[in-house]
Automatic annotation (TrEMBL), chain A:
This is ABC transporter domain-containing protein. Transmembrane segments: none annotated. It is found in: Membrane. Pfam families: ABC_tran. It comes from the Archaea. Keywords: ATP-binding, Membrane, Nucleotide-binding, Transmembrane, Transmembrane helix, Transport. The keyword Nucleus does not apply. PANTHER family: ABC TRANSPORTER ATP-BINDING PROTEIN, ABC TRANSPORTER ATP-BINDING PROTEIN NATA. It comes from Methanosarcina spelaei. It is a multi-pass membrane protein. InterPro entries: AAA+_ATPase (IPR003593), ABC_transporter-like_ATP-bd (IPR003439), ABC_transporter-like_CS (IPR017871), ABC_transporter_ATP-binding (IPR050763), P-loop_NTPase (IPR027417). Its main location: membrane. One of its GO terms (molecular function) is ATP hydrolysis activity.
Automatic annotation (TrEMBL), chain B:
It is found in: Cell membrane. GO terms for molecular function: ABC-type transporter activity. Coiled coil: none annotated. It comes from Methanosarcina spelaei. The lineage of its organism: Archaea, Methanobacteriati, Methanobacteriota, Stenosarchaea group, Methanomicrobia. This is ABC transmembrane type-2 domain-containing protein. The keyword Metal-binding does not apply. It is a multi-pass membrane protein. The keyword Oxidoreductase does not apply.
Amino acid sequence: MEPIIEVKNLVKVFHSRGRKITAVNDVSFDVFKGEIFGMIGPNGAGKSTTFSMLTTLIKPTSGSIKVSGFNVDKQDDKIRPLIGIVPQKLSLYPLLTARENLELMGNLYNVPKKEMEEKIDYYLKLVGLEASADRFTGGFSGGMKQRLSVIAAVLHDPEILFWDEPSTGLDPQTRNVIWKLARKFNDEGKTLIFTTHYMEEADNLCDRVAVMDSGKLVALDNPEILKEKTGSTNLEEVFVRFTGEEVRD
Amino acid sequence: MTIKTELMDSLIVAKKEFKILFRKKALIIPLVLFPIIMIVFFGYGMGGTVKEAPILIVNDDTGRASSSLVQEIGSFTEKYNGDPMFSVTYTKDMSQSEAESKINDGMYKGVLIIPPEYSESATKNESTTLTLLTDSSDTTTSSIIVNYMRQLLSKTGSVSLNIPNIYGNLEYLDFLIPGVIALTVFMGSVATTGSAIAGEKEDGTLVRMLMTPISKRSVILGKTIYQLILQLGRAVILILAAYFLLGFNMNGSWLLISLVLIVFTLGGVGMGIVMSSRVEDMESFFQLNMLVTMPSMFVTGVFFPLSSVPDWMRYIAYCLPLTYAIDAMRIIMIKGQGLNAISTDLIILSLFAIVTFTAGVRLFRREA
Ligand SMILES: Nc1ncnc2c1ncn2[C@@H]1O[C@H](COP(=O)(O)OP(=O)(O)OP(=O)(O)O)[C@@H](O)[C@H]1O
Ligand SMILES: [Mg+2]
């Protein structure tokens, strides 16, 4: 299988108020083209930090990352147009309408006007937001923001979609929509990388799942194989086997 | 990335900034009104000028000297906006306490009492005392009247008065307006740039934007274009409002004014970027902003001339860029001088812009 992302010995150290935090500690893995790749791990495990480095937002302390053959250090401007990102902290302009938020994103990704408008209409309908298209997003619910944010991330038809905690805090209906979308994007050939705290979600969607804990990658495989290896009946047990019972800060 | 795409991207950013600005009703009103209110309040309230201030002259003397004095006051028609400054009424045989009660009743802003022996003493060159009562609850009018009378009497020679060099009360607005324009542009560009970035940090939209292919440069350029339009727009509104509400003298070139304001706005934007890079949210930004811009507001001579402040204050003022912007604005607007006269100011302001901008671009990182 062809790797679309290659991560080698990735380290990220933060210096915050005189304290040294190793958020990502010597992590290496590949993501294959066309797969759905899940990342799980307790709070503070380093999932979002890894995402930030993969998406060129922050620079690694050491180690190397290649995305679609480009080096994040030197060719970050080649990478950004190829990827779509739904950040953990959903960030929409509250004083712009849903449509204006999308148009802004489309423009920043240089999507031709006509194509952009067609896509916006299509996706708004797909996620059931067409009636709210001209409302300010400041008043949107968490589920609406999540649905809108994912549209914003795919208007430019990215090869890889990064989705940080797509279903946290959402009702079952919205989560269903999110899952359908994830599968749809994957069927269209996009590589999907997401993080989640819902083991069921990881189990259902992922071709492979990576378990992170305290900055380390502690396991990486197909969910079925992980269950088999650890003699667990579900992913929840796998998770606890790898990361322990202890609550994190 | 080509220059063209960078420019197009920055226009996308500028457009977005405007769209959001126009929806922030709570912000746009003070943004426009703040400078106008400041001018109206300070212009009328603090220094300003007086319009038809009622003055009573109690002349108990019948000699020539007093009548010429009275005539001079009466014919004083220094105009402001077409209105004479004083409206004079004459009487005689009124006691001081009677005069005081007239002022208490608000009938007169000032009463000048000329004693019976005035003319005689004047011809003999002896010193005499005129009594001037003023409504000191109205500081502006009363100080103008006092100053005017002092000046007038100093000419007669019979009363030797030391006239302190007050900064031309009659032209206080002309003095105030250039300063307020510079202050407005400075506070506005620093505060709106910085708070917008701090707010975008807080709600994550800044990071979100930097995840897209847009370059850091384009984001900064977009915000700068927006600020230049916004601040120059505010300056124009302020100038128009000041002109139509209060009237002022403009002796120099609007082109030079624009040049000074553009350079100064750039510096303010750079400073806003630098300041916002030190904070994580809007509230901390505003705290920092208070600390940084407050001294500028009170030390740099917006409201009073630097020549009238103590040395230590003047030294602080010379460290603040606003001082040079105000100086340049006054040189152009009041003195009507050209590029030569403001070249030092312009060089300092350009340095300010270059330094803050360079620092701002460096500190404005993708890593939020
Ligand atoms: N900008 C930063 N400065 C300092 N420390 C940071 C920064 N970003 C993350 N960290 C720290 O790095 C560690 C990893 O954080 P990260 O957000 O990557 O975890 P996560 O796995 O995404 O957690 P969660 O499941 O809660 O989202 C945490 O200890 C966090 O406090
Ligand atoms: Mg996270």
